[in-house]
Amino acid sequence: MRDSYYNESLSDIVKKVFEKNQILEYRNELVQQINPIYRNPLPGSWLNFRSHFYAPNKYFMGIYIDTFYFNVSFVWVLTALLYVTLYYDALKRTMDWFSQIKPGKLFNSKGVQKRETD
Length: 118
Hints:
This protein is of the alpha+beta class.
């Protein structure tokens, strides 16, 4: 199975085999440059899901999630959000709402917002 599906060139890219410096010092910390595919991403903030290239998992909302399942669920959530947006015609409503705003009605000639009086 390995002979059929293993790609040596891709393995070299992912493992960074030809990296000259295996460990670098960055901001007074040691950063591993070789074999990043085996390294877990460093947790940032609670909602931050950024990670390095070919990371095995993502850190999101305090837990590590496998990258494949995270990406698939992210695509499904965005698909559902865009479906709801299209179903309720939210883009057209938003554009219509912005087109109703007239710059002359909200601001006077000096750029100061006018007060509405009854």
